[in-house]
Amino acid sequence: MSVTYYGQSCVAFNFNDTEVLLDPFITYNPLAKGIDIDSIQPDYIFLSHGHQDHVADMALIQKNSNATVVAIVETAEWVRKQGVVSEKVVEFNFGGTLRLPFGMVKMVYALHTNSTPDGNYGGFPCGYVFFIGERRIYFAGDTGLTLEMKLLSDLGLDWAFLPIGGHYTMDMFDAVRAAEFVNCKNIVGIHYDTFPPITIDKKEAVTLFRESGLRLELPSIGEKIIL
């Protein structure tokens, strides 16, 4: 298993040769100018919510790849309005578990807001837990610190992808507490540095996590990490 970081909260997992892309926002990310968006060919696209900085490239990438798009019910309806045929849209909701060729995916709570780029209600934001064989990966999406995270503490998470930029989501200090809540030592930071309100001191963040007994990965845009 591996993951490639494309900036903001956009990551692409390779799960046993199945490509799974989350929250595609590349074209409008000033830090991701070197990424060739046409080369991104996922089998699945998962959306944590409908804000522009998580869905801006969904339609183009889906058209290029014919990927299946997965989202909460109301955000999935917006996906269909972008021209994605219903057969390529999977909607589900909290408590739901999808069984897909690469493994299982459970939708979990996120503390945030959600509207789609056209200004309409997008349902609730969410996160996802991916069950790939014996491995467990948590993608938190945009979220503040919430006690709901403690419900994940007994899953045996191998990796957690947590927002650390603050302002719109958790900052690095709350993310340390979130790592404790979900009982996961290996963290990949997301949702930071793209815009001035979420710029962080990377050295401070890595030191903070290390002193808390945690491993924080902050990959460069386009960098691949073996999980």
TrEMBL record:
Q: Does the keyword S-adenosyl-L-methionine apply?
A: no
The question of whether Hydrolase is a record keyword is answered with yes
List the keywords (alphabetical). Hydrolase
Entry protein name = Metal-dependent hydrolase
Which InterPro entries does the annotation name? Metallo-B-lactamas, RibonucZ/Hydroxyglut_hydro, UPF0173_UPF0282_UlaG_hydrolase
Molecular function terms from GO? hydrolase activity
Q: Where is the Metallo-beta-lactamase domain?
A: 7-191
> What organism is recorded for this protein?
Sphingobacterium pedocola
| Matching Gene3D superfamilies | Ribonuclease Z/Hydroxyacylglutathione hydrolase-like
Q: What is the phylogenetic placement of the source species in the record?
A: Bacteria, Pseudomonadati, Bacteroidota, Sphingobacteriia, Sphingobacteriales
